[in-house]
Automatic annotation (TrEMBL):
The chain crosses the membrane at residues 452-474, 486-510, 531-557, 569-590, 597-617, 688-710. GO terms for molecular function: ABC-type transporter activity; ATP binding; ATP hydrolysis activity; efflux transmembrane transporter activity; organic anion transmembrane transporter activity. PROSITE patterns: ABC_TRANSPORTER_2. Keywords: ATP-binding, Membrane, Nucleotide-binding, Transmembrane, Transmembrane helix, Transport. The lineage of its organism: Eukaryota, Sar, Stramenopiles, Ochrophyta, Eustigmatophyceae. It comes from Nannochloropsis salina CCMP1776. This is ABC transporter domain-containing protein. The keyword Transferase does not apply. One of its GO terms (cellular component) is apical plasma membrane.
Length: 717
């Protein structure tokens, strides 16, 4: 695509196919939408319109001023389906459209991230540079700009989701500092849909309602809200369909996105933030999604979204456009007036060019030239650097916005930088710990049951390995001359399989990590409630039940002791070992989001614990500095128990020297009694409960460290 041509300032917009390319004519833009300035007197009439969602608009409190020029209603010239629909009056009273939006103003807002560079040096980077802006109440504001210009960072900052970066400047909500509990008033839709794949659309929305609506709202009312949201977003056809996972076919991309919006809308927020809600959607679906958002704005909600180069029919739906480049504001105002503004500063939009493509060409061209000059080591020409940002700052529009923002800050009396301190308190939970724990537990339990990887495959894989192990040792664990070696080998393998099978749990948490971070930062629940529910409803049952099958099958097939005492202690030892090794996996998966790193980390721990167990190398052969691992080795405690249970009071028929002479294949480790072997390894058969106690005590220690890691998980910006 060619670079946009910069010309001397003109106040007109070129238009029409018959107009020669470079001639400016005085006609209103051919494809720019008609805009109507809304006054309070007209508002009543405007609010009677039927929106594309089919709702009768509720009175909205549109701000007055240049930013309130809202698109007039009307059928899209491009899409006949977008015309008004007639609906029953009941739907006009949707329970999720009760809260009207708020105005968000930000003044001199800067964001500086600290990060560790490739050469391990601590560096800082200014992502947003002293920008000011206003998103009026009941408007649909689009943040546009090239990749990396700071759209997501601005969304995060306004939503109070920036946990690590340094923020300076002011953020005002309806002219006041963001108050405690601001997060309860907003909805934030991430770029990647954060939904529970094994749950249905309705269940996902219900989960959000259960946790984010106060307990004072009755269950019935919550259900009504869920149904209203489903109705409003046109999700009734797929309401009972699962979202979908790698193994379960689910709903379409557009339905997923609408479900994500529904999860936020169900709490009736005043503001909805959306990070690139159309990414990955086809043009028609993207249009439908933005149409819904625009409609929510016309019903009073404040909608702020980031978007990449939308097509014109989508662009027409935006009320306010904020164009960013390199962390600076290069245009802000009515979306329809963008082309006019750029013409004023010398960039002319060609006839039939999509204004969005044009804006992006202008901005990207500046960024490209900057990049080129920087990468060739040349100095950046002062005129070019920040030309667009400077032009906007000096323009009448830019000055008007800066003036408005400053006036709001002065009126509010909020001290400088107060917003950063306040960010720590914007999150407040709508429900208590017990309610959160119950609701999350229900979801975790359902997810475990519905996910074949945690339910049927888990049991089948334990059964399969038990049958295989049993088959190898079938008939070998008698009291014959070679049996002792077989007994030791069998116990060694049983412990090995139980410990290494825990690695399957790594993936489960890593997959859910982004969902957890989203829900945590959106104020769904406390980390502790989530963590406890995960341990009680996922880790415990998915380890206890399969190990029961494993214990029974291996004991009977291999010929271990199967009386109640021995079998139950055998199962208990395997269960606590499995839970402990799974806790270690959880710890590692909380510490890193990279699956291969977590796999290697866990594998390394298991190997070290095996080597330090005293069965591979004798205890006194382990280097002193590695000796502490002996005490942490759950492999050691598990194997000691398994051997004690199997070999204590067992007698072996060892070959005599004569028999060995006659049949050299009988050469093997053989002691006349199992107790002699236990003694040689320093295993006390009376320590079975002690070992189980030590294994059980390790679990909370690992879980506590995992919980601390989980608590520290935050957004990276
Ligand atoms: N924690 C951080 N440390 C260092 N740099 C960061 C951090 N967070 C964001 N950035 C950088 O800040 C810039 C803006 O990031 P941001 O995600 O806001 O851009 P964006 O406009 O949303 O991009 P895209 O459209 O590609 O999603 C990027 O160059 C990004 O690499």
């Amino acid at each position: 695509m060619s670079s946009p041509r910069r010309r001397s300032p003109q106040k007109t917009v070129t238009s029409g196919s018959s107009t020669p390319k470079d001639v400016a004519v005085d006609v209103p833009a051919r494809a720019l939408p008609e805009y109507a300035v809304v006054t309070h007197a007209e508002e009543e009439t405007k609010d009677q319109k039927l929106s594309p969602l089919g709702l009768t608009a509720t009175p909205s409190e549109k701000a007055v001023g240049f930013l309130t020029e809202l698109p007039s209603s009307g059928t899209s010239p491009f899409d006949p389906e977008l015309g008004p629909k007639v609906l029953s009056p009941q739907r006009a009273k949707s329970s999720v459209l009760q809260t009207t939006g708020v105005e968000i103003a930000f003044h001199q807002l800067s964001l500086t991230a600290t990060y560790v560079s490739k050469n391990m040096k601590r560096k800082t980077r200014r992502i947003l540079k002293n920008i000011s802006g206003i998103t009026p109440c009941g408007s649909c504001t689009a943040l546009m700009g090239p990749s990396g210009c700071g759209k997501t960072s601005l969304l995060h900052t306004l939503a109070g989701k920036n946990a690590k970066s340094k923020i300076s400047g002011h953020i005002l909500v309806d002219g006041k500092a963001r108050e405690e509990g601001f997060s309860a008033k907003i909805g934030y839709v991430e770029q990647d849909d954060q939904l529970m794949g094994v749950m249905s659309v309705r269940e996902n929305i219900h989960f959000s309602a259960e946790l984010r609506l106060p307990v004072s709202i009755s269950k019935n009312e919550k259900r009504c809200r869920v149904e209203d949201t489903i109705e409003l977003l046109g999700l009734w056809k797929c309401a009972n369909s699962k979202i979908g996972t790698e193994m379960i076919r689910g709903v379409s991309g557009g339905e997923r996105k609408r479900c994500s919006i529904a999860m936020e809308l169900v709490v009736d927020p005043a503001v909805i933030f959306l990070d690139e809600p159309t990414s990955g959607l086809d043009a028609f679906t993207a249009h439908k999604v933005v149409e819904i958002l625009s409609d929510l704005a016309s019903h009073g909600k404040t909608v702020i979204l980031s978007i990449h180069q939308p097509r014109y029919t989508v662009f027409k739906l935006f009320d306010v456009l904020m164009l960013l480049a390199e962390g600076e504001m290069v245009y802000q105002g009515p979306a329809a007036k963008g082309a006019e503004y750029f013409a004023q500063i010398g960039f002319q939009c060609e006839p039939f060019n999509n204004p969005c493509d044009f804006f992006m060409d202008v901005v990207c061209d500046q960024v490209r030239r900057l990049d080129r000059q920087i990468s060739y080591g040349g100095s950046v020409h002062v005129q070019e650097m920040g030309f667009l940002a400077r032009s906007f700052k000096n323009s009448a529009e830019g000055k008007a916005i800066a003036g408005e923002c400053e006036a709001r800050v002065l009126d509010s009396g909020v001290a400088v930088d107060a917003s950063r301190r306040m960010d720590k308190h914007v999150r407040r939970y709508a429900t208590g710990f017990l309610h959160q724990f119950r609701t999350i537990s229900r979801r975790v339990f359902l997810a475990v049951m519905r996910n074949p990887a945690t339910s049927i495959f888990q049991v089948l894989s334990f059964l399969a390995s038990a049958v295989l192990l049993g088959a190898f040792f079938y008939g070998r664990l008698d009291g014959g001359p070679t049996a002792m070696q077989a007994h030791i080998g069998a116990m060694f393998m049983v412990a090995y399989m139980i410990i290494f099978s825990a690695i399957t749990s790594l993936e489960l948490f890593i997959q859910e990590r982004a969902l957890f971070v989203h829900e945590k930062t959106s104020g769904f629940y406390r980390t502790s409630a989530y963590f406890l529910a995960k341990v009680v409803c996922e880790i415990l049952p998915t380890r206890m039940v399969p190990t029961l099958f494993y214990a029974v099958v291996t004991a009977y097939m291999a010929g271990l002791r199967t009386d109640f005492y021995h079998l139950s202690l055998y199962w208990l030892t395997l269960t606590v070992t499995s839970i402990t090794s799974t806790s270690l996996c959880l710890l590692v998966s909380c510490a890193t989001s990279v699956y291969s790193a977590a796999f290697m980390g866990c594998g390394a721990f298991y190997i070290v614990f095996m080597l330090a167990s005293g069965f591979v190398l004798q205890a006194d052969q382990i280097p002193v500095y590695l000796a502490p691992f002996k005490y942490l080795s759950f492999y050691r405690y598990c194997l000691q128990n398994l051997l004690a249970l199997d070999l204590h009071n067992r007698v072996f028929d060892c070959p005599t020297p004569e028999e060995l002479m006659a049949d050299p294949t009988l050469v093997s480790i053989c002691l006349p009694t199992g107790d002699l072997y236990l003694q040689s390894q320093g295993i006390n058969p009376d320590n079975i409960w002690k070992n189980i106690g030590i294994l059980a005590a390790m679990t909370p220690a690992y879980l506590f460290i995992a919980y601390l890691f989980l608590r520290s998980l935050k957004k990276t910006t």
